[in-house]
Amino acid sequence: MSYEYMIGQLFEASLYTILFLLAGVFLTTIYLRTHNKQINWLYLAGKYRSVLFTVFYYLLVLRITCFSRIHFQGINLRLFASYEDAWFGGSSHAWQQLLLNIIMFIPLGMTLPFVHRFFRRWYGSLLTLFGGSLLIETIQFVFELGVFEADDLLNNTLGGMLGFCIVMMVLSARTKRWKPLAGYTALPVMILLISLSAFILYWSKPYGNLTYSVFHPYALSQTNVSYRHKLSKKQPMIGMYRLRTPNQKQIRMLIRTLEIKLKLQDQPLINENSIQQVRGYANGQLIINKENGSWSYARIAGDGTNQDNNWLMAKHTGEKLGLIDSAAKLQKPEDSSYAVWVWKLDGTHNGKKGTLMLSCGENGIVNFIDYDVSQYTYVRKEKAISQNRAFSKLKHGEFRASSAITAKRIVFNRAALEYQLDSKNYLQPVYIFWGKSERNEWEIVIPALP
């Protein structure tokens, strides 16, 4: 969420608040005039400043969460689903969304005790905060502005109550009410201990988490699962690797090298975020992945040359550009449009993993390059579970399903041991099982480390 975006949302919420206040002033004036009462606006503003701030902030939250989205709708009532996704996925975006939903309601919880005495009782603030979150989720669902999620209700309410406890701790300490103070510290201390325990647990593990892991097994009681061939009971030794993440200097050197080799012209227009950098030139576009050093290039037509593809010329051009080494295996394309090279790790040495896709015309001018290749450092060998043990896990539902499994029978006919990147940038071994049911084809991934 960019700084400019937040300023825009703040400005619009301010406009809504001003309109709300003007309407309130108008109605208050009518009421007081009809009852022959004097109006002291400074007194009213001072008395109700907490109400005004609470209304303003809630409108801001409403604007950000509801009225700044494209139309889509969904519902997810599975509690702790966002925590499971963030924990196993290791995505910074997932953690940011989770924490944002908590932090966003903290100011509301801090202002409510100053609005009315009722909100100084924990249940008063709890009901109000839950109701405020429920209203947002309902608006999102009814008007197709987002997903109604049980976790959002939990996180919003948790954040609001955290703000409530902080304020009440301060008020209790100022008035020397020590018994209530001890009660209000319970929630912040509990959150701190849980967060610290999760942090220690995560970083004490030798490797990161995989997106295919789950807390709870998938229910397969209504599905008959079988494997067509005999499964091996041997536990293979697998080489473990870690992704080499390029630093800023290496990224700058890569960009400069590509600009020279691809003859990119003029000062580029740059669009950048934490993951990638997009650079637009007069004769092409370059996209750099800052996390693993992969990149892609697409030529912009209009320079008078054709864009016919010739994979033999692409092979020659790839070698000339220095993109191919002896470890790459060439795959002849079916449509003769692209030349594709594949790098695989040998399980014992540092190496590359990924694919290079290259297309160019008869004249050798590059049309398209997708260099999806990453560098990995060899770490050590680990003993993986056997195929038989992995399939046993599958039968017991110890995997994450991408969609609901409703088939009565699934027959798996192929299995392979592959690598997947975990949340700490290690390549972990996983078993992939391919199978078929009456209507669908299935691909299920089982982590291979014990």
UniProtKB/TrEMBL annotation:
It holds the Pfam family VanZ. The keyword Calcium does not apply. InterPro entries: Teicoplanin_resist-assoc, VanZ-like. Keywords: Membrane, Transmembrane, Transmembrane helix. The chain crosses the membrane at residues 13-32, 52-74, 94-115, 122-141, 153-171, 183-203. Residues 55-169 form the VanZ-like domain. This is VanZ-like domain-containing protein. It comes from Copranaerobaculum intestinale.
